[in-house]
Specification:
five-stranded parallel β-sheet, about 20% strand, elongated, binds flavin-adenine dinucleotide
Length: about 425
Amino acid sequence: MQQPQSTALQPSRPLRTAIIGGGAAGFFLAINLKEFCPEMDVAIFERSKRVLAKVEVSGGGRCNCTNSFAEVKDLSAVYPRGHRLMKRLMKGFSQRDAYAWFEHHGVRLVTQDDQCVFPMSQDSHTIINCFLYEIRRHGIEMRTESKVESLDTLSDYDFIAVTTGGSPKAEGLRWLADMGHEIEQPVPSLFTFQIKDEALQALMGTVVEGATAMIPGTKLRAEGPLLITHWGMSGPAILRLSSYAARHLAECQYQAPLAVNWTGLRDIEVTEALNDIITTHPQKQLQTIAPCGLPSRLWTYLLQKCLGQRSNSRWGTLNQKELHRLANMLSGGDTYQIAGRAPFKDEFVTCGGISLSAVNPSTLESRHVPNLYFAGEVLDIDGVTGGFNFQAAWTTAYTVAQAIIGHCPPSLSK
Ligand SMILES: Cc1cc2nc3c(=O)[nH]c(=O)nc-3n(C[C@H](O)[C@H](O)[C@H](O)COP(=O)(O)OP(=O)(O)OC[C@H]3O[C@@H](n4cnc5c(N)ncnc54)[C@H](O)[C@@H]3O)c2cc1C
């Protein structure tokens, strides 16, 4: 963690900070401000009755609060928007700092095999209780049912931080745009796909571990487990693709082709695997041996889709054309039509928001309004599933806390 740089104000009263938005970023910012500058007056303004509502439901109620990043080679793979800024800011507050912060504040964490980090309690309330305890301990003022959409009412405050989260509609950001802030059009990210194919939907619950989902005609592709559902497709590969393709799919009004590589293998490798079976089991029926570790119900569906009536034949009777068609279908040639976003919000975040060109990249201070800062999902930073969105909230909130503390007289800051 970095220590604050001081360009101190010398006020005759304690400095005051207003935080607009009582979510993950707002709470983390408030607590860090008070930890480094106990004399500062800090108030959180939250529009609804309840604070931390998203933290509560996050990760299926378990709160996937960060990720080890052990499998992340390039931040652009996990932050489709904002990866350069995250790389810069994580030098000041990384996933390791977040892990240490929570443990230091009494939240024991555990890293799963997939590198996602959760509270050991497997309960998001552990994090909520930690935040609420710290808020009370530091005497941070909490004003619920206090929607703020103008800075006029906050003229008593020296610093203001906007932590209002993702705004699904640009309208919600109008008041910030009116101050001169550039806005990246908000569109949804992290959604599942509706696919109208009854035979596919009948396979609901089927999971293919190493699939690749792609939008043909683009470079947009994502790998990972793919889950067939009763409305179409879901699972990490689809959620990741929805994030990479968030803008493209919005422009297409969520009507686009989708190609799936069910094996994660190249055509030549699948052909080899199919030829092996032809050699070793020529008398067996095609349906009885699922190649490349495919679930057998999915194999039967794909066989039927590819060979029709011939799907009842024996391996040894496959001709070269059929072999080629099957290999192609298993290695990326199987296509579907996305018919919309599924109505279920598995983990919904907003792509877009306050443009990163509107803020100083070191402090997240507005380039248009002095002493106004932004943190969390209101910024045009969003990640894929796996704890990356909360990490962005912690990192940006910490950055803003440091920037504000930099203005505190050294005698008042720790
Ligand atoms: C169902 C679900 C599950 C998720 N699970 C995970 C997960 O496991 N891991 C992960 O990393 N991410 C997850 N996310 C994403 C994550 O929750 C968000 O990225 C994160 O909460 C963003 O934090 P934030 O503080 O910026 O915004 P928020 O948490 O959305 O908080 C913003 C707050 O500001 C308030 N507000 C808005 N406008 C105003 C206003 N004008 N005046 C006053 N208050 C205002 C809102 O009511 C809200 O309380 C999930 C999201 C959803 C929807």
